[in-house]
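hey can u check if this looks right to u? its 271 residues, i copy pasted from the old doc so theres a chance i mangled smth
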Amino acid sequence: MLHALSKHLTASIMVGMVLGIVVGWMVNRGLLSGLADPEHWARFFQMLSTIFLNLIKMLVAPLVLATIVSGLAHMADSSAVGRIGFRAILWFIVASLISISLGLVMVNLFQPGVGVDIAAPTQAIGEVKKLDFYEFIEHVFPKNVVGAMADNNVLQILVFALFAGVGLTALGPRGAPLVRAADTLAELMLEITGYVMRFAPFAVFGALANVVAKNGLGILGTYAVLLGEFYFALLILSHRVLKKLSCGHAHRPWLGSMIAHGWRSARTCAG
């Protein structure tokens, strides 16, 4: 059933891409100006993609928290949980640093976006504070878990989730109600994720229609190059770097989860 849903969603996204390009081109050429002016079309298209991105951001914090806490709390060996928690934090930091460093190298090497006509910001941009290595490590550990949840700071949420999972394992039967709550929350968030992903074709339609309406079909070439560079970076990260880091640890089931969450948190930091 999940496989069929995935195939249906993929087909729907492809249809959304094609329709987005076609409708965006029509707006760019003024063929739909009789229905609404280009600004209204652009605002409508942008709304579709913004709603989807907001829904995705809504899922991140509770989904990561619930799945990590639930997974660690169900481990029988409490001493192993502590060791895994420490290694997970170390892995997240290493994966984040490697991902960010690779991203910076790729940006300086390929310079994506060069040649694209982007309007200058109307508001003044304040001075950007440089983040050194020690500040990055300090930033990983939350001083306020509520603030970390509100800001969708994935690394800080992961750190709290690891401590919570270890703590619930140490509590034993007394922590059972919270473990059941984490299990239920994880199942709920996965169910909601399925609902949100059904909106993905509309978001893809809106995003492509918006950029094509503003920039014409020529922007698709720039996007294709950017997408190729992105997947090239993922190829290096997955088959070269992470494979070497995980060498000799394939028998440890927690490693796959750590790689996935480390990857996600690194992208969040870079964004």
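The CA atoms of residues 13 and 200 lie 7 Å apart.
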